[in-house]
Amino acid sequence: MSDWDYLYGALELFTHNRKRNQIVMLQDIIFRIKESFNKEFEDLMKKRQNQIDAIGEKNKRIIEILQELKKEPDVFKAKPNMLENPERILTVE
To answer: Which of 3, 23, 48, 73 could be joined to 66 by an S-S link, Cβ 3.0–4.6 Å?
Structure first.
């Protein structure tokens, strides 16, 4: 059974005790959803950082090869988006 199965229907909330129980159960469900979202978000951010690191390593190798060929290196450099780090949004540089 899921948490949703324990909730009362809208027409079953006629006592104060049931209403309070419903509020507590809904708050618990919301907390679990938020926890799940945060875990997924953190996993995605780790994967993204790993990909950026891999691109950086490949760029280093590309630059080495281009220097051996005596050509101008022009490689992609990933820059983090300002919105990805909430602490930096309010920082003035």
So the answer is: 73
Going by C-alpha positions, the residue among 86, 90, 64, 62 that lies closest to residue 76 is 62
DSSP string, 77-91: -----GGG-HHHHT-
Contact 82, 88 (CB under 8 A): yes
* 9-24 core/surface letters (b: 16 or more CB in 10 A; e: else): eeeebeeeeeeeebee
Structure letter (DSSP) for residue 50: H
Spatial distance between the Cα atoms of 84 and 79, rounded to a whole number of angstroms:
11
Other Cβ atoms within 10 Å of 62 Cβ, number: 14
pLDDT tens track for 7-35: 888 888 889 999 999 999 999 999 999 99
> Are residues 13 and 19 in contact, defined by beta-carbon separation less than 8 angstroms?
yes
Cα 54 to Cα 36: distance, rounded to the nearest angstrom: 27
